[in-house]
Amino acid sequence: MASGVKTKKPIQTKFRMPLLNWVALKPSQITGTVFTELNDEKVLQELDMSDFEEQFKTKSQGPSLDLSALKGKAAQKAPSKATLIEANRAKNLAITLRKGNLGADRICQAIETYDLQALGLDFLELLTRFLPTEYERSLITRFEQEQRPMEELSEEDRFMLRFSRIPRLPERMATLTFLGNFPDTVQLLMPQLNAIIAASMSIKSSDKLRQILEIVLAFGNYMNSSKRGAAYGFRLQSLDVLLEMKSTDRKQTLLHYLVKVIAEKYPQLMGFHSDLHFLDKAGSVSLDSVLGDVRSLQRGLELTQREFVRQDDCTVLKEFLRANSPTMDKLLADSKTAQEAYESVVEYFGENPKTTSPSMFFSLFSRFIKAYKKAEQEVEQWKKEAVAQEAGADAPSKEEAPAPKARRQQMDLISELKRKQQKEPLIYESDRDGAIEDIITDLRNQPYIRSDTGRRSARRRPPGPPLQVTSDLSL
């Protein structure tokens, strides 16, 4: 405390007053300033502040305070309102509880009886975020030990207190969430497992596909064995190279040539791709994720069974286990079959199942089939174009035939025009004696006449019959 500065005591007001948002100075900051000369306590003694309090008190007021009681308890610290959860967390909990539109007792009762229909899966998953933490549980325990009144708690704190009293709360919430998600999860996983099984088994059992690969191996060895030695097999990614190898004239790929060979020599193999099923669907499956989801469902069912052992009178758990245990058994069996079928087919084609995902493996065959079908279409189109070209070479051109006829019509029209011109003279005989001289004189005086002045020049022309102008006139 700075020397010479009197210590000021806090002022107890009758009503709760708003805060003045100023920047206050500490005693050490007013040395040598005007504030050392001011006495605000004297001013307050001179004024009646009750009217000021009435006009400026905050709208939210607690019960009236007894000033004499406040003086007696000035040395004591006023009790603070109890809080069991952090402010932002309490705010989010309040929003969640409004969405549930249920009271705290009804929510907790539904959790205790596994009444998923009353809670709803979406609300349940939101509520799972507010499972009491260790710190919150310690605050709750202290509050109960001190036997403090419930009135000190907000609505969110009261819910948390009731929520935390549910026996085995985390296990119950996990079981409820499992019960709600189980049907949809099974419907999502089953088709993916079936696609892996069907695609794997159809590829491995296809005799036509094996013969196609045999032909590819034969052509590859024919091209490479003299330089690199004979190959006994090839990686499946080599199928993409068939599109890159071009013929000498660069007009076709090796795949186009193989398509021609298969169509001519091995026509029974042309529809080999009809033996392969669900390749695209299987290629979109993340088998590791699916197997992980199946294991998660298995753990959820085991948790439900343990909860039922503790509460064998719970009809909800009993009915769920009766209806869905067979479904879980089938899902486990299918997941094992899918894993074994996939690993078997990958190894059968010389790949490593640990480093080759379904998206990589099945997409190799999908790309090959699409490229093969496109090559088939192009080869067929080339055949049609060749046939059409041969047929066109033998037949006369249809566009050249009408040309002589049109030329003859044009010549006939020119002859007719010339004949008419000879019959009709440029100047009538009655005007031959002076008409031409007048025209030449007029043109010399006016060598150029605009089209819009033609009427004026016509008025100066001597009267006579109109002229007939033809393209044969030369001056």
UniProtKB/TrEMBL annotation:
Family: Belongs to the formin homology family.
GO CC, alphabetical: cytosol
GO molecular function: actin filament binding
Single GO biological process annotation from the record: regulation of cell shape
SMART domains given in the database record: FH2 (SM00498)
Domain spans labelled DAD: 430-463
Pfam family, one: FH2
Listed name of the protein: Formin-like protein 1
Segments for region (Disordered): 385-475
Domain FH2 span(s) in chain numbering: 7-398
UniProt-listed PANTHER family: FORMIN-LIKE PROTEIN (PTHR45857), FORMIN-LIKE PROTEIN 1 (PTHR45857:SF2)
